[in-house]
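Workshop exercise sheet. Pairs work together: one partner reads the sequence aloud, the other fills in the structure field after running the prediction. Swap roles for the next sheet.
Pair: D.N. / O.F.
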Amino acid sequence: MRGFLSSLRFVVNHPLNRNNPAEAVKRWVKWHIGSRLVPGPVAVNFVDDVQMLVSPGMTGATGNVYAGLHEFEDMAFVLHSLRPGDLFVDVGANVGSYTLLAGGAAKATCISIEPLPSTFAHLAKNVALNALHGKVTLKNLAVGKEDGVVRFTSGLDTENHVVSGEDQGRDFQEVPIERLDAILAGCAPRVIKIDVEGFEMNVVDGAQTTLSAGSLDAVLLELNGLGARYGFDEAEIHRRMVGFGFRPYSYTPSNRTLTLEDSPRELGNTLYIKNLDAVRERVATAPVFTVLNQQI
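Structure field:
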């Protein structure tokens, strides 16, 4: 019951639902009933003509069903900051929400990286559903500071992660791991999203060349305290990002403004921007996208 109430609060308070909470609750109820009557994942409308395959229990994906854009500010930033021909890198892509926004709606080129084979299969199906094989390169591996093999949890949906000392007795799979610099050798991403459930320091350590590049405008980086499971000080990650020339910003999709912040977000992703003037011009002049019959 507590989980349902938390989900319902998220739905009615989401920026895309506030003007019509009754319709949002209706959509939430319809999903909880209807999705259980259909065997297998359901293809749902996402942004513009992009669709996503969603099954009950997929936390991030069902958030998009309930609210259009689960992580509203961050997802809107990806839509507004990318153009056709740009490269977006999705580290920890899960089933592909950000990949579909970047490659499907914004028409950018993507490299999408997901380590867990079962989740990777869902990601691949979403890419195929939207005929994005020409735009999206899929990588079934983990990202870290060195190449090799790593143990990865399974069965935790969006919270699967590299096995740590806290995971004794938990089911795991061995997956390959590579440095982002090696994966992207010769590539110049415009925007990178990194969501690796506490393993961010290792990703940063293996991405020195990538993060130093002047062509990289922005990084969406999750810093929510989970680094402690690997002995990482997330304040050090922030100092590293500042050292690469990035500063933390918040994004307001309604008027497409960027606001400098004093520190990273305590929960969720922190938006780090390097080329502020270029990014401001991009978000201000980006096309309009349609989500839940609303324009953003």
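Discussion prompt: DSSP finds eleven helices and 15 strands in the chain. What would you look at next?
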